[in-house]
Amino acid sequence: MDIKKIDDFEIVSENSIKVVKTKKQEYVNIDETLEELEKNSDIIRMELNTIEYPLFSKDPKRVKNQIKVYNFKADGSSYLEVEAPYGYAIPGEFEERVFIALTKIMKKNRYPKKFICTINEVLESLNVNNWSYMPKIKNALRLLSKTNYTFKNILYSSEIKGIFETEKTERIMKVTIVTRDNNKANEYEKFEDKRIKEIYVIEFEDIFYDNIVSKGYLAFDSEKLLAIENSVARSIYTMIEKWRGYNLFLKKQAFFIARRVPLKWEKKNIKRTIDIIEKALKDLKNMDLLEDYTIIKKTKWELAEIEIKFDDRHNDVKQKTFYEERQEFNVDMIVTSTQDKVKNEVETKDGTAKEILELFPERLHKVLEDLISESINTYGFEYTKFNALYTISKNPKQYKAYFNKALKENYAAELIANNQHKEEIKLIKENKVIEEAVVSPIYKFSFDEYLEKFSDNQKVNIEKDVYERFLMDSRGKDDRVFRGIFEKSKKGLIGQYLTENNIEPDKEFIIEKEISGSYISKSKFLVEVLKIAKERNIEFDIKNVAPVFNELYEYEDEVLAINYDENTKIGKIIIF
């Protein structure tokens, strides 16, 4: 299960040196001072849910070359052992954040077990804008792909429909780095962007994909999880959401919560552990993720209980999140498992899926028929057709991947908005193979670029009108739930609104947003960037930018983005 041998990811072989590792035992569900609680069957015998595995340590003082064993029964018959590669400590809080970011990217790619991303995409998914994180992200990926997790009597198998009784050792994922100079680089669409120097092929192992990802983290909003800075609070939030279902009241022993995180539970520090839990609950309350909580001390702190209350609005958000995730995830699973079945033709008042399918080369019909049918159901006939035409005009190497992304991002939005497709696109004659035709690209802007042609005042008024119409059509109310739904579908709704109302940008507002030219060197290009920044009153700190740019050949902040191609000597400036 090792990743491929790549210089950047090679580590010292543990077989070639004398490795000394220590093993530390922890008892997650048991404690000799709590015999009263052990009588409660839900502590010892409760089946461990996938989201509750202590995959990522909450200990800020993790020790290199230390194997951590989490025991779930006193006799040692049920445990999880975590072993990092030589020279590393076991995965912790940052690795968990990277893991969540990867599930976020996976969602954008329609939940495949294997997908491709760049370090920059992981950085964006972490919601940070700091290039210094890149080496740390690489290190986290290395650790996630090299750490062994050994399960005994706690891991559920869908194949045997029960718990694995024997030891089973797995790794979370495989990671393969492909660089631009790799002989297989031309197989990857991402390299069409000349700024990208390397990509990461991420593949979740079956056990983790089936038991951790699809049944655990995908039930949560990744944005919400990443927004919880306190790692203990993040663990408690995922667990109490699982435990409570849709009940508005939850009561658990403090000990039980502490050992699920897990946190230390020793006589000398029990009160400190409860204080840590209380701080986490306070953070969750401040983020409006729970209504209130109460810590009840019994005869001693070891027997303390915690009551947590929720409000109906928490269930509304939970239901929405669960429904959206389940719907999106299950659609893909259904399509994969029923590819050979006869499909009912999707027909609308505007046309059929077959009509769009026949625009593509015949060799792609079986590959695209499900995607087209789903898209018509989700977005409508016209939307799907325009994006199909856009995809065809680009003649991509990987039609399905490109078309799928075009549908998600609405690449053809500017065509829909301007209603120019009939005059500007000429399809080939009937019965002629479309791949033999040359379709001239006529698209000058992406939807985001087109929208930037509108003044700030226009954009505010347009979005306001579209949102009001959205609430009216959906019979919704102006609250956080409906605003969240609107944000996810905003591009398509605005495109439709611009088309129906023939709205165009104010001519006097259209200014040059992108500048490109040939420059003999990076330094010459940077001088030009500085000059343009001064002309446009843009703050540009060349002293801090230059080191990053010289290393990466690109730089981006809230105001502008610059990149330079050493091969073509072309420099590009984009002003936001």
The residue ranges in which pLDDT falls below 50 over 5 or more consecutive positions are 1-19, 29-49, 322-350, 417-445
Instruction: Give me the secondary-structure category.
Output: alpha+beta
Report the total helices. 22
Strand portion: 5-15%
Principal-axis shape equals globular
- Rg, please? 27 Å
The oligomeric state is single chain
Strand order of the largest sheet: 1-2-3-5-8
Report on this model:
It is a single chain. With 576 residues, this protein is an alpha+beta fold. The protein has five domains: 7-220, no CATH class; 231-315, Arc Repressor Mutant, subunit A (Orthogonal Bundle), CATH 1.10.10; 338-449, no CATH class; 453-509, no CATH class; 514-575, no CATH class. 43% of the residues lie in helices and 14% in strands. It contains 22 helices and 17 strands. The chain has helices spanning 35-38, 41-44, 93-108, 119-125, 134-146, 206-213, 222-227, 231-244, 254-260, 270-286, 312-337, 353-357, 365-379, 381-394, 399-409, 413-418, 421-424, 447-451, 456-474, 480-501, 522-535, 542-552; strands spanning 22-27, 66-71, 79-83, 114-117, 148-152, 156-157, 162-163, 168-170, 173-179, 198-204, 249-253, 292-296, 305-309, 514-518, 554-556, 560-565, 570-575. A five-stranded mixed beta sheet has the order 1-2-3-5-8, with no helix packed on it. Strands 14-17-16-15 form a four-stranded antiparallel beta sheet. A hairpin with a 3-residue loop joins strand 15 (554-556) and strand 16 (560-565). Helix 13 (365-379) crosses helix 14 and helix 14 (381-394) crosses helix 15. It is globular, with a radius of gyration of 27 Å. The two termini are 44 Å apart. Mean pLDDT is 73; it is low at 1-19, 29-49, 322-350 and 417-445.
